[in-house]
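Why predict the complex rather than its parts? Because the way molecules touch one another can change local conformation, and only a joint prediction can capture that. The input here totals 421 residues.
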Amino acid sequence: MEKVTIEKAYQIAKAQYAEMGVDTDAVITELDKIVISMHCWQTDDVGGFEKEGAELGGGGIQATGNFPGKAKTIAQMRADLEKVMSLVPGKQRLNLHASYGEFGDKFVDRDKIELKHFQGWIDWAKKRKMGIDFNCTCFSHPLADNGFTLASKDPEIRKFWIEHVKRCRAIGAEMGKQLGTPTIHNIWIPDGMKDTPIDRYGFRKILKKSLDEILSLKYPKKYLKDSVESKLFGIGSEAMVVGSHDFYLGYALKNNTLITLDNGHFHPTEQIGDKISAILQFADEILLHMTRGVRWDSDHIATFNDEILLIAHEIVRSKVLDRVNIGLDYFDASLNRIGAYVVGIRSVQMAFLFALLEPNKLLLGYEEKERNFERLATLELLKSKPFGAVYDYYCMKNKVPTGQGYIDEIVKYEKNVLLKR
Ligand code: RNT
Ligand code: ZN
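Output of the joint prediction:
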């Protein structure tokens, strides 16, 4: 897009928003403070680098599609992530899974991972002035095959996974220390049952005990923050997930950890956006996994849809941007994977921009005077305001492609890099 066109469109947008009391320059400054934690697992369909040609398996999460060009080495993965970052404005963090360490030629099992396997990532992030978030990998492993990890009734299996998660937290704390920004370590486990369990209570008691043991070692919050992620159901855990929302909400509040809200992990009409202002009355911080569930927890690429918009609106309206950590969680193997990142990141940013451009004073005034018609009408009018012109201007200021410019860039990268792998 022509620079003058973007400038002109921005000036018009600025005047239109100013009429409603919104300062677009100030909004851009706010938007630029938002950091998005990029999940590493869209690069290779959640495969990881423990073994050559590692595939996602077990635990019920599934990437579908076989679009060419998936990252097969860490070098390719880093190149892809760098490409993504060159096409989006704003700041990013890297959200790494433990299965993505640099393990060399020999197999390193999950209960043996060490800092040295992740030092390369830390150095890579340091160079780019990025923080890292970290995740234990409690799936795609023979010891997760019967559907249970930290909630297993087999003490040997439980011991193995407890050791894995303890090591992940230690590595995470070191990441946070070296990078000067706390690493959030997120615990998600697949544990659950396909058919009606008899001992839900027993499994949940075991999970609580495992978590207590894992979290008994405290790290300074400036290095490591712990978070726990719930789920409603998964493939193979339709009847019960041990780590349900009630379980983890209780656990997080009682133990002062963060809670991870993945918007694919709830009943289809349940809104994460509505939960934020409730949970933050009691918890200090939350972590988001932004995604798009199509009919179920399908992990489609996040888009600018009602669900994401409500989340963004609620965070902005509640003025809790500093207490919400924004992460992405989706994996689509049916299209260009770099494109998947860029679309998701840009869509989430646009949702926050849209929310920040809301005339809060005006709307709150209507609400407090019980002028509900005016409130609704204004919310509807906002949908046709030129927020796209503000986003283009933001991209231009950040020296990344504007408008449809990034599509061409990605197609070029596909031809020159991805298709040659
Ligand atoms: C699974 C959870 C979890 C994973 C990642 C790969 O349902 O959403 O966050 O997607 O850890
Ligand atoms: Zn998730």
